[in-house]
Amino acid sequence: YQCDWSSDVCSSDLADDRLTCFSPETASGARIAACHAAANDANLPAATRADALGISAAALAADGRAADALLDLDAALKLAPDDPRLRLARGRLRMGAAAEDDFSAVIAKDPSNAEALLARGEMRLRRRTTAEALADFRAARRYAPTNPLPFRVLGKASLEQGKLLDAVADLSEAVRLDPRRSEEHTSELQSH
Which of 28, 103, 109, 142 has its CA 20 to 30 A from that of 119? Predict the structure, then answer.
């Protein structure tokens, strides 16, 4: 999660060490403290405060402090409830239905958000709601045609369903997009 530097909010509204929050080179502890200072500054726009909490959450999660990261993301979403970056970040840290709710909220706002479709599809695969998962991967394949993951998942599913032509097409595209995994896909095809 990073501040949206395309807007001037991140650079012009912060005049002191709170800028440390938005500097990726800053040590984690100092960055988290600066982000909390920025988030608590009621003079800053809500979007900037939400960005600061999102950055803090990413640093906390990287430090293995998922529970603290979730608290920051919950607070950030109170400031910016429709921010898809915050919802995706929170969904990645949450488990079960709560995470799926975050991914679904992003997709409801933007049905072409491939990142949310992939995340929800992976979650649904783990829950064994295969038909729903495959629908998400088909949509992700359409919106992220350079990402090998949906092709790989759909190719494996086609193999399991005995749809060899579909499997070959999807796995071939996965190999083209990610040649490092070509042996894995070739052996899957040969085993069927």
Answer: 28
